[in-house]
Amino acid sequence: MSSKGLEQFLNDNLEDLKGKGLYNVIDPLDSPNGPVITINGKDLINLSSNNYLGLATDERLKLAAADAIKQYGVGAGAVRTINGTLKLHVELEEKLAEFKHTETAIAYQSGFNCNMAAISAVMDHNDAILSDELNHASIIDGCRLSKAKIIRFNHSDMDDLRTKAKNAAESGEFNKIMVITDGVFSMDGDIALLPEIVEIAEDFDLITYVDDAHGSGVLGEGAGTVKHFGLSDKVDFQIGTLSKAIGVVGGYVAGKQNLIDWLKVRSRPFLFSTSLTPADVAACIRSIEILMESTDLNKRLWNNADYLKSGLKKLGFNIGNSQTPITPCIIGEETLAQQFSKRLIDEGVYAKAIVFPTVPRGAGRVRNMPTAAHTKEMLDKAILIYEHVGKEMGVI
Ligand SMILES: Cc1ncc(COP(=O)(O)O)c(C=O)c1O
Fold first, then answer.
1. How far does residue 241's CA lie from ligand 1's centre (Å)?
2. Which of 132, 241, 354 to mutate to test the pocket of ligand 1 (most atoms within 8 A of CB)?
3. The pTM is what?
4. Which helix (H) or strand (E) is 293 found in, with range?
């Protein structure tokens, strides 16, 4: 039995969200999460995953995971510091460091929890964090958890960042100051201005923290945004997720040995939560090997992204300022964006609406993620459906 207060809170707020078209219904998939998915028995071209390279369903990863289960079982057994560090975890961290061109790395159970872990292990109430206003929710929550003063700067506005960095540094109020940014912004697909950010960081002695969840496997021929700009030795924290281009689950920080040593003794999700399973770790290792062996999948991803983007742009859709495969079609009003997505799904394209609070109010959109696994035929079909639904709804 729940309290009347809770009942009222839930009913009022759920009704409110539904009335505003902000309530997201989650669809169960009958199929693997590949370039075509099956929902309610219907096949749909899937433009909603973060499975950039198609590795989530790759046979080589499945085999690695199955072998690891045979050898090590299904669970890690415990928190790593207590008894759960399998050699596989260490091997994964060595591979990640090689992949990211850093001294070493630490793996976490997810990208989200990596940001919870890493920021608060280093920053505290005597510190300040300069954070891009469009940073991912996990960065925002990680910053809050640290109790440092959060100073938001306007999205990719380097004058604003410089002014705020200068003021914070000159105030003398803070022991440490960090600048933190997504490498690639997940809802718009634009790339952080890392060379300028690093320059400002050098001028004001800032700690640099880049969450490259959407850049790894995508930019820098796969190695990520930091490598793309040749800044591997200039960024203190390189954060990534193992759930998007890598295709599995997990997160990591790559950086200097002393930083990772500290995170291993002070980051709470590492110390108080059981580690990645053997199957996850083995699949991640195989995935990173594939990425380091060849850039084929990365090239295919970019070809498909360019193809879809130019097709949608030619039709007259507003795809914003994306510089990466993330392809938003910005519709504006939330309910219209939801209806547009629903019609796309009716016609055979699974592209979900993204609305407030994930993006600002009035910037509702349908977000498309072409992957290396899509064929030209699938993309052509998707573009045709976009044209049909766009004209029908007066969006183009
Ligand atoms: C920038 C950023 N950081 C972290 C995450 C969370 O990653 P994970 O799904 O591995 O928890 C995401 C996922 O959307 C992201 O976009």
1. 6
2. 241
3. 0.96
4. helix 278-293
